[in-house]
Amino acid sequence: MMKKFIGKVCSLFLMMLPILTTAGCGASDSTAYSTEDVVNIGITDSLGGINPLTVDQTWVNKYAIDLEFLPLVDLDADLNFQPMLADSITTEDNRNFIVHIDDNATWSDGTPVTAADVEFTFLRLASPVIANPTLTLYAFEGVNEDGFIEEGAGSVEGVKVIDEKTIQFTTKYPLALTTFENTYALYIHTLPKHILGEYSEAELSTLDWFHHPDVVSGPYIVTDYDVDHYISYTANENYWKGAPHITKLNFKIMDSSQIYAGLQSGEIDMTHHTMTAIPQEDYENIEALEHIDVIYGSPITNQSVFIKTPNIPDARVRQALVYAVDRNQILEQLMKGHGEVIDGFISSPSPFYDQTITPMPYDPEKAKALLEEAGWDGAKQLRFYVNSGDGAFVNAAQIMVEQWAAVGIDAQIQTVDLAALMDVAKAGDFDLLAVQYTYAPVDPYPDIAWLLGGEESWTGYADADIDEALAATQTAKSVEEMKAFYTIVDQKVQQDVPMFSAYIISAQGAVSKRLTGVSANVYGSFANVHEWDIAEQTGNN
Fold first, then answer.
1. Could you tell me whether strands 159-163 and 38-43 are parallel, antiparallel, or unpaired per DSSP bridges?
2. CA torsion sign, 203 to 206 to 212 to 216?
3. pLDDT in tens, 29-53
4. CA-only gyration radius of the chain, Å
5. pTM value?
């Protein structure tokens, strides 16, 4: 399963640079360019960790691990799946998926990357001892319904090594190729069996090796790590796709209010659409920086508000929550119009977007009428959890709470960091929970199926019509046929409101002009990181 809080989504950096502590302070009018072969990326959420076997599948954790241990494939800016560790993934029956590892793929110690490495990684991801709660593997033959296999299992029916470079995955039921790629191939970070095979499953859960690995398949190797402040990388000179031009790369975890000052001073070189929540009030200031290229991403990241439906069981009350909020006003005032308002999960870049689904309008009188019809007396205070790292939405949440109060709904904002927010979501101990969530436009199926998957899901909501429509997307013969099924889902979600979109973000990204070769987009930014370079510098500007 893939979670993007996406976004949802997070932050990193280098020890030799000072950690910013005062928002916007100390920045001069001139830009101090670094003369070192170092690139610093500023991000704004906390990391879950860098052990590929235990972290959740948020984008920040994915990208942090991608740099060391390649996924099988990655999405590019045009929403096409591009080879990374695998050079092909095929299926003839939507149940048996043949993955071929690139013949040139090697570990940094020169050992070939093999299908046995992929099998080893799968078995550890499915271990009940390691118990990763997010990359649920129950879709595969031989895996229990809880997503795990027997402790110590040396094989599983649904994963078969064909030859040194070929492995077959077999699912219990049909999956679209894009679902297999988007749900599993993007997130399985193959590990070196010849290095880690000697460790027990329990040892792998806490192995310090992941904090300073000596064998990787990707372009960079972690050299230092602090979960709250930074990750530092050095180039893998033996990277099989070519040694990176940039010697050192750092993710720096910052407060969102510090991003502009970091870009202005040159302390950070880059932000990312899904990992950096730039305050809306800083957009124009960043646009004015002559040494910065600004790129607005497609409206993909959904500022989702999930409703724990057992706590708010009347759909009329849930509808009132939407009618009471002026989402277009929030988009214009806080996001400067960089985005869109939709109902449901599918935004306009998706091939499954149905523009005939008109978003519920701002209508406080309608909200009041629905609440009265539902017998809402206003006595219940709703607990509204919000990501403290997303300053823009903290402001939006305050507007929403005020507009809810105007119709008789009492909600209290509780801000927590992303890691704590995920703990709250997992425990289900909330009434409303907001997080940036990037539903992959090419394949929203897994996230929707999980989020609307009954009492164990975040929403606690399930519906037979939605289940049927989602299942049909996996055997549909065309994009138009799939689109029709997703329309059923979005229409039902608009009616029952187990979640709603506050707005869809067309996020700002920023890249220093000292960098070359960077394709800054919502997807695909790091796929060619080994080709990034630093332009010739002339000193301070």
1. unpaired
2. positive
3. 333 334 468 999 999 977 888 999 9
4. 23
5. 0.76
